[in-house]
Amino acid sequence: MQEFIFTKDYKHNEPLRKSFFELAANTFDLSFENWYQKGGWSERYIPFSFVEGEKVIANVSVNILELIINGEKKKAIQIGTVMTHPEYRSRGLSTSLMNKVLMEYENKYDFMYLFANDTVLDFYPKFGFKAVEEHQFSMDFTPSQFEYTGIRKLNVSQADDLRVIYKFAAERLPVSQRFGTDCTQGILMYYCLNVFCNDIYYLENENAIAIYKKENNHMDIFDIINIKEVKIQDILTKIAGRDTEKITFHFTPDYKGIDLKSDISHGGLFVRTTGENLYPVHVKHPITSIA
């Protein structure tokens, strides 16, 4: 293999950072520049890259976070943005970077995991990752009373609204004690700025942010961001319309007083564990903290 220069954690190196952003945009259609400019890139996001000159040619990124499993915190590393420039593929660069990550964090985590697309499902088992089944949770909804006051759509282009989102992202409670994440504000801000920028609502009385979409009789709730405990019934009273018949949660809800259904979901999750740690069954990783 031709010798390329290995480097990591170079967010303050402008040429490399911009090259990294360009490779991510060309590979996955990801837009990192605005996320970086708005302060989303924290010390918990670490790219491991091979470079040629000032050009990033291959990358494996590390996201350092915590998993909440039945109320207990576990150290976790989520792998993301695994990519190689087309001109440099089939040279073992991704394999070499994965091995560097494994060596760097050996004995420093309880769970290491990633979400793979269909084209690389055979790649990660070589490093001790195992495919894990997820579940998607939903509930039938019967409209009753509604309260449409005290709810405001947030605009990420407005500085005041963005500050509100940042505050909640930094101070939030995990979305679920049964299975949730912590220390993931950087990933959440990417989703707020790039994915769900038109779907973020502030609920004044509940002092919470809900990220959701409604289409016909169905509502998808992607996240509920709160600093203090909330009742899901109070949230749904605000955000569910009279025509809503089904609600899908894109995380593992542990709210009291609701009847949930679940279906198996194959999202390409691969997990590597240490010691006696077992990844929980019948859960859904929060969508807004998937790297």
In summary, what is this structure?
The protein has 291 residues and is an alpha+beta fold.
Q: What low-confidence regions span 5 or more consecutive residues with pLDDT below 50?
A: none
Which bin fits the share of residues in helices?
10-25%
Domains, number? 2
> What is the total tally of β strands?
15
- Reported CATH architecture of the largest domain: 3-Layer(aba) Sandwich
Strand content: 25-35%
Instruction: Give the N-terminus to C-terminus distance in angstroms.
Output: 29 Å
The first-level CATH class of the largest domain is given as Alpha Beta
Quaternary structure state of the chains depicted: single chain
Q: Main sheet?
A: 8 strands, mixed
Count of helical stretches: 6
Query: Average pLDDT, to the nearest integer?
Result: 95
Structural class: alpha+beta
Spell the H/E element sequence.
EHHEEEHEEEEHEHEEEHEEE
Protein name: GNAT family acetyltransferase
Keywords: Acyltransferase, Transferase
Organism: Paenibacillus woosongensis
Pfam family, one: Acetyltransf_9
Question: Can you describe this structure?
Answer:
This is GNAT family acetyltransferase. Residues 1-155 form the N-acetyltransferase domain. InterPro entries: Acyl_CoA_acyltransferase, GNAT_dom, YpeA/RimI_acetyltransf. Keywords: Acyltransferase, Transferase. Helix 4 packs antiparallel against helix 5. It is globular, with a radius of gyration of 20 Å. The two termini are 29 Å apart. By secondary structure, it is an alpha+beta fold. The protein folds into two domains: 5-133 and 266-280, Gcn5-related N-acetyltransferase (GNAT) (Aminopeptidase); 137-263, Aminopeptidase (3-Layer(aba) Sandwich). The protein is built from six helices and 15 strands. The strands form two sheets. Strands 1, 2, 3, 4, 5, 6, 9 and 15 form an eight-stranded mixed sheet that branches. The model has no long low-confidence stretch (mean pLDDT 95). 35% of the residues are buried.
